[in-house]
Design brief:
With 69 residues, the chain is mainly alpha-helical. It has 5 helices and no strands. The two termini are 15 Å apart.
Length: 69
């Protein structure tokens, strides 16, 4: 189960960097805490569907892109 968390986290990090956002900027745009974004990117946290959607919207991608590995 932890492997999928890492894959999703790496995708989020990839798209965040592609947008030129810091973790703090992504967190602000997604209305989430910066520390939570860091934990997701490192694969330490399970991400809920609602939070995945918030992050996807902030990154201007579809949720399915974040789940595509």
């Amino acid at each position: 189960m932890a492997e999928i968390n890492k894959k999703v986290g790496l995708n989020i990090k990839k798209y965040r960097q592609k947008c030129g956002f810091t973790q703090e900027e992504l967190a602000f745009n997604a209305d989430l805490h910066r520390a939570y974004i860091g934990q997701i990117e490192r694969g330490e946290k399970n991400i809920g569907i609602q939070n995945l959607e918030k992050i996807a919207k902030a990154l201007r991608v579809t949720s399915s892109k974040l789940l595509n590995f």
